[in-house]
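Retry 2 of 3 after timeout on previous attempt. Resubmitting structure tokens to design endpoint.
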């Protein structure tokens, strides 16, 4: 069939306005599909990474947002004395939005000496000593830094303000975990001392690193039992479970959005199929001539199918390419309650989009191709 590629391309070019409109429609639909799919893939990636971690999050009981959780900072000593606990990290959290948002910015305040031990990232701009030497300094994830640079002109060495907190950007980091690049890390004491209200002596949560072989559920119960007599009740969960619960509403939204993605696939199917069927109706005589010249039914069928596949793949390449480029440049992170999902381009996302485009092209071409093959030659020639 490769020898008939020029014929197929020429056929599509003869009706270039219709072809271009169809490709554009398919591109828009697959752009939306890719964006929706990136949300689900980001959620899956976050869940997969956290599933293998031996870490707990200790949070104030019955609180839904980090801004409303306050635990005594001296809980870290009591937690650290429990069997199987390797390290306890007090964390102060400050975010611009506790609700689901595409523009969420999260500050995490940690003791500087513990930050590099408990977070796996690499500084690609700036200087680590500048961060250690200044209480108002921060290291910023590459994804959120790009967004801030585009929106506010933020630079390394410059200032960034969120609410009552203004930090100096000491460096930019990258991480193998895309979600980490949506965070800003600063000093614990800096976030505890606000201009309007002081939280010195309290923290938002504790992250507990466990030794190997410790059962997560048993460790959670041990922490809560130890702190039950304290001034503030706690709820301790494995980090993956904590984030999954935090993102529960967002996960439901992502599942609902998948229907939008499927609707876009259906749109491509109908659009390409209808356009090809119209083209077949316009070229009834031409297909009859091909069969008269000795083209078999299966060959005509494959010629028509090739047209729909080319149109769908062209739309897929355009839509999926624009979606991945937008995700790469946009630096988007979908978050809720200070937990973020990274929306990033990936080979898997591109392969999924192009696979859907190919499948759609095949399905969309079956009916028009069958219609062309079933056309009787003599009436078709008379019609032409």
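Retry 2 succeeded. Sequence:
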């Amino acid at each position: 069939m490769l020898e008939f590629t020029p014929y197929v391309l020429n056929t599509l070019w003869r009706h270039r306005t219709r072809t271009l409109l169809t490709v554009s429609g398919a591109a828009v639909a697959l752009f939306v599909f890719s964006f929706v799919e990136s949300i689900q893939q980001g959620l899956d990636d976050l869940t997969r990474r956290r599933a293998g971690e031996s870490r707990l999050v200790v949070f104030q009981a019955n609180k839904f947002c980090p801004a409303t959780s306050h635990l005594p900072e001296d809980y870290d000593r009591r937690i650290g004395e429990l069997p199987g606990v390797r390290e306890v990290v007090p964390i102060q959290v400050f975010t611009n939005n506790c609700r689901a948002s595409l523009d969420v910015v999260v500050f995490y305040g940690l003791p500087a000496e513990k930050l590099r031990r408990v977070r796996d990232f690499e500084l690609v701009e700036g200087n680590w000593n500048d961060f250690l030497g200044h209480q108002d300094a921060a290291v910023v994830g590459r994804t959120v830094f790009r967004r801030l640079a585009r929106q506010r002109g933020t630079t390394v060495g410059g200032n960034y303000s969120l609410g009552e907190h203004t930090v100096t950007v000491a460096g930019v980091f990258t991480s193998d975990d895309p979600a980490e690049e949506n965070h800003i890390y600063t000093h614990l004491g800096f976030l505890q001392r606000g201009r309007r209200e002081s939280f010195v002596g309290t923290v938002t949560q504790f992250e507990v690193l466990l030794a190997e072989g410790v059962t997560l559920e048993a460790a959670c119960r041990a922490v809560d039992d130890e702190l039950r007599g304290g001034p503030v009740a706690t709820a301790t969960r494995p980090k993956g479970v904590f984030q999954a619960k935090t993102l529960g509403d967002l996960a439901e939204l992502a599942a609902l959005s998948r229907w939008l993605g499927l609707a876009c696939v259906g749109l491509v199917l109908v659009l390409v199929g209808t356009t090809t069927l119209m083209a077949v109706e316009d070229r009834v005589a031409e297909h009859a001539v091909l069969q008269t010249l000795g083209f078999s039914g299966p060959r005509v069928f494959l010629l028509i199918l090739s047209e729909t596949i080319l149109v769908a793949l062209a739309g897929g390449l355009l839509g999926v390419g624009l979606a991945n480029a937008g995700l790469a440049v946009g630096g988007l992170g979908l978050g809720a309650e200070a937990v973020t999902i990274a929306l990033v381009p990936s080979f898997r996302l591109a392969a999924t989009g192009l696979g859907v485009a190919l499948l759609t092209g095949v399905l969309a071409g079956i009916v028009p191709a069958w219609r062309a093959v079933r056309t009787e030659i003599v009436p078709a020639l008379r019609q032409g």
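Attempt log closed. The longest helix spans residues 16-51.
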